[in-house]
Automatic annotation (TrEMBL):
SUPFAM superfamilies: TT1751-like (SSF103247). The lineage of its organism: Bacteria, Pseudomonadati, Pseudomonadota, Betaproteobacteria, Burkholderiales. This is DUF302 domain-containing protein. InterPro entries: DUF302, TT1751-like_sf. Residues 37-97 form the DUF302 domain. PANTHER family: INNER MEMBRANE OR EXPORTED, SLR5037 PROTEIN.
Length: 134
């Protein structure tokens, strides 16, 4: 996947604080958080080491179900996924699939992009308003 296929936002916070901020933001707007997977913890559990990396699966079944009804294979990219990982400066970077990439992959209506663009706007706003880490 190319960088242009992903939204990418810097976070002023570390990975765990960014994950907490995102989960709280999603809960505030009524989005469902299906899973929060701490990949670093999973690696450590089998004796491996990696930088902090967390995957958040979230969405709204009212928005996603019609898309999967139109093209069941789009379930590969639904629910929506956010990758929160450590950047070289110790702060987090947040990434999510771009709306245009999703629409180009599946036989879904063009307005399906709104599911992604709405989530992207919400997340970008939350990250911009986040308190700066000391």
């Amino acid at each position: 996947m190319n960088d242009e296929d992903m939204y990418t936002w810097p976070s002023p916070l570390g990975v765990s604080e960014t994950v907490d901020l995102i989960v709280a933001t999603l809960a505030h707007v009524g989005a469902k958080v299906f899973a929060v997977i701490d990949q670093q913890a999973e690696a450590r559990a089998v004796g491996l080491d990696m930088q902090a990396l967390t995957l958040i699966l979230f969405g709204n079944p009212r928005a996603g179900t019609p898309l999967m009804q139109a093209d069941p294979t789009c379930a590969f990219d639904l629910p929506l996924k956010l990758l929160v990982h450590a950047h070289d400066d110790g702060r987090a970077r947040v990434q999510m699939l771009r709306a245009e990439t999703f629409v180009s992959r599946y036989d879904v209506p063009a307005n399906a992009a709104g599911v992604f663009t709405g989530a992207a706007a919400l997340l970008e706003s939350a990250l911009l308003k986040a308190p700066r880490a000391p």
